[in-house]
Model the fold of this input.
Amino acid sequence: MIQENKDIELNVAEIFRLFGHAQQYSPGEIIFQKGDSTDKIYFVAKGRVRTYCLNERGDEITLFYIDENQLIGSEPLSNIQKRKISVDSVTNVQLYSMNANVFLEKCIKNKVSILNLMEFFINKIITLSNYICCNRFMKNNEKLAYFLYTNCAGDVVQYTHEQIALLTGMNRVSVTKLLNTFSDEKLISQHYKEIRILNMKGLASIFNSIGYFID
Done:
């Protein structure tokens, strides 16, 4: 086991795995809810989680899906006392949780790079920026093309039709029809629970009115 106060630089993931508390969740389990206290911060080691809020009627509004190697519940790092959103598990999930103050203390003692720590928050800002940009489109084909373009890992988008509909505000039928159109146009190919991008430039040309955001 790596000891503290040695001349070794750890990264954020290693801090959680060494000093955090491991937790397992099955699909659909609540991790925390809006209004809960914010004493802990979480690292997603495996699986996918969903962030959501409730509207006035009590309906769930999906905001984002967050995959492994990301932080969730980082409110206490900003001295926020209550959770702003709710989070549940989409797949089987493994998390590591730590008290926020202990996390910062371990980062300092174990020489965690500021760049490594900031990377998590920069990724969060990028996700929020893409969400805002995606929802400024009035036409569904532009909105969907932008979503696919900005949510691919390499050339793969790992979202179902239903998940895309929830994130973009489109209905599932419209998503399916447009994906079939994109497939016919050889822009994408569709597979079980994932979409493969075949023509990135072709997708970008659909929403080129804000092309300067993706340079």
The domain at 12-130 is CATH 2.60.120.10 (Jelly Rolls). Residues 130 and 199 are 20 Å apart (CA to CA).
